Amino acid sequence: MSPTVKLFGLLLILQLSNCCGKKKVQNNFKLSVNFQPYKGKLPANGVVRIVEYILPAKHIKTKHKPTKKPNTKKCKRKKKPCRKKQIQLRSVSPHPTNFLIKVLQNKQIICSGALITTKLALSSSNCFSKNPSPSQFQLQDINKELHAVDQIVLSSFYDLAALMLTNHIKDSSIQPLKLCQQAIEAKQNVSLYMTKVRSNFLRTQIVENAVCKQSFMQNEFVFITSNMFCAQNSNVAVDCEKTLKGDPLLLNGQLCGINVYGPSCVDNAPNGDLYANIFKARDFIEDVKRSVAET
């Protein structure tokens, strides 16, 4: 090969390297210029062969870091330990208490109740024996005044006791409650009174009777009837135990329930108390009120 041809080949390589490394070569081709060191004897004319290749880009091996595959797995958040919301009782103030009464037998408090007239109160029939003697009982109002009981009418069907006083209460601060004017349904918001120690109340809801069935499962003397409903008590046992037989339950300021059995409580459990349904017992109550009016 003549020196002129060799020189032309070298210039061609340089020209291609200059032009094709920029914009004139399509993206799918790359210029590869390989200069290999000559290890043999230098020829007499001093020219060493230069080999030049133009190869498609896919045939050129390049070193590159492997790309990490995106993590398609969803991160699972650690579940926080479940904390049950505590149902807490509140001080009764400013809730009205001027209808509350305590039932005393031989000067000992046995139950509570609510006044529905100035001469008639309602409590639980489970506070009394089958044939109670009225002379053994007294009612104490919120002002600590004692009132003699003239007659006790029991209804085992409604689990209610109607207590007639000998005389009307004349204290103007005593305000009897109006009776319930609507049917009781689950999830209604109510005020549950707790008078065992001192007067408190609990804003709570009506729940299914199954809750009370679970609460009273170990008590063979408790019977749940269609004339009762269940209200959720506090899930803190110390608070839950502050209800008393005869404690009233209010819905929209009206007397809708009387506690039948008192509490049955376990910590961190959905405790329930059973109440006599005043709305269903209206006929019984109205009959008693008429007999009181006649005396």
Automatic annotation (TrEMBL):
Please give the superkingdom of this protein's source. Eukaryota
Say if the entry is tagged with keyword Hydrolase.
yes
| GO biological process: one example | proteolysis
Query: Which Gene3D superfamilies does the record cross-reference, listed alphabetically?
Result: Trypsin-like serine proteases
Keyword DNA-binding found: no
Picking any one GO molecular function of the record gives:
serine-type endopeptidase activity
The Peptidase S1 domain covers which part of the protein? 102-285
- Give the record's keywords alphabetically: Disulfide bond, Hydrolase, Protease, Serine protease, Signal
**Which residues does UniProt assign to the signal peptide?**
1-19
PANTHER family in the record, alphabetically? AT20289P-RELATED, POLYSERASE-RELATED
This one is known as Uncharacterized protein LOC117574414
According to its UniProt entry, this protein's organism is: Drosophila albomicans (Fruit fly)
Q: What is the lineage of its organism?
A: Eukaryota, Metazoa, Ecdysozoa, Arthropoda, Hexapoda
What's the encoding gene here? LOC117574414
